[in-house]
Amino acid sequence: MGTNTKSYSSSAEKLRALLNSQTTAFLMEAHSGLSARIVEEAGFEGIWASGLAISAALGVRDANEASWTQVLEVVEFMTDSTKLPVLVDGDTGYGNFNSVRRLVQKLCQRNVAGVCLEDKLFPKTNSFIGEGQELADPLEFAGKIKAAKDSQLNDDFCVVARVEALIAGKTMAEALQRADQYYRAGADAILIHSKKKDGAEILAFAAQWHRGCPLVIVPTMYYAVPTDEFIKAGIATIIWANHNLRASMASMRNVCRAIQQSRSLQCVEEGLPAVSDIFDLVDYAELSAAEKTYLPGSAQS
Ligand code: SPV
Ligand code: MG
After folding, report:
1. How far is CA 135 from the centre of its chain?
2. Within the chain, which residue ranges are assigned CATH 3.20.20.60?
3. Is ligand 1 within 6 A of the CB of residue 12?
4. What is the DSSP string of 25-47?
5. Mutation test residue for ligand 1: of 118, 127, 162, the one with most atoms within 8 Å of CB
6. How remote is the CA of residue 296 from the centroid of ligand 2, in Å?
7. Residue closest by Cα to atom 5 of ligand 1
């Protein structure tokens, strides 16, 4: 992490470099401007704007209950809050190829580095709910990928095609074939998803993939497999997909429970960031400096 010292002119260029680097990159989930700042502070190279986490933080389900413009609003706070490249979870693209075209243009305008689109049906279902989810027609989905690439407003914007065949219980051959179709439609990377605990199908997929474009994985369910195995398998980018959202749930629950039971703040104060830490994280120092420049009578001597 954090070894990349080259300077890039755009966030999309940074994400493209991460995806195509010889070393494995790590994207960490964020779901707000604040969590995006915390990801940057921790030293990550990029951000995963998780659909699940953004939805949950808004109090709704990961079933396209939040509209794409509502997600866009959240994502804009994230890109405004950090210099890290943000890869947005675009679910199924919120409709057909035409919805994808408009989504991609708006993401580019908000300084988003890339979008990930998955080959399922709108409204989407989270990959970890139920069995045998219905997949998109691969030709129709390839058209969406092509539409996304044709609509991007800068050359480096990245379109990641997410293959849900293994999630849906289809064969490895189908997963590989779909990945190849999406690659040939212009995808800059393939996200191969799996919910099996042992990570075996991810490693098998990686071994058989022709490597026309890089692979991205999300080890939420196969978290116990050592990261080194995926690095050795040549995985380009690993996404830690929902761990800030889950951490915040745990922390908020503990604090709520303690304050509610004790009717006091005494028991939680020590374990929490100081209020001044909030000011630091959202950069009040910059505002103080700007006041000296712009407010009458407060010019620096
Ligand atoms: C997300 O974080 O919203 C994802 C990853 O799409 S998963 O929850 O594994 O589907
Ligand atoms: Mg998602």
Report:
1. 21
2. 11-242
3. no
4. EEEEEE-SHHHHHHHHHHT-SEE
5. 127
6. 48
7. 241
Residue 226 has pLDDT above 50, yes or no: yes
Place of tokens 């490597």: 211
Catalytic residue positions? 62
Work out the number of other CB atoms within 10 angstroms of the CB of residue 38. 19
- Atom 2 of ligand 1, residue of closest alpha carbon: 50
- Angle at CA of residue 186, ends 180 and 189, nearest 5°: 70
Token pair listed for 56: 């949950």
Residue 190, C-beta contacts closer than 8 angstroms, at least 6 positions apart:
160, 161, 162, 163, 179, 182, 183, 209, 213, 214, 215, 216
Ligand at minimal distance from the CA of 127 is 1
pTM score, two decimals?
Answer: 0.96
Q: Which amino acid is at 27?
A: L
Task: List pLDDT tens digits, range 201-212.
Answer: 999 999 999 999
Mutate to test the pocket of ligand 1, among 52, 58, 74, 196 (most ligand atoms within 8 A of CB): 52
Q: Does domain 11-242 have CATH number 1.10.10.60?
A: no
Residue showing tokens 């509502």:
70
Residue 139: helix, strand or coil by DSSP?
helix
Q: What is the pLDDT of residues 260-298, one digit of tens each?
A: 999 999 999 999 999 999 999 999 999 999 999 999 987
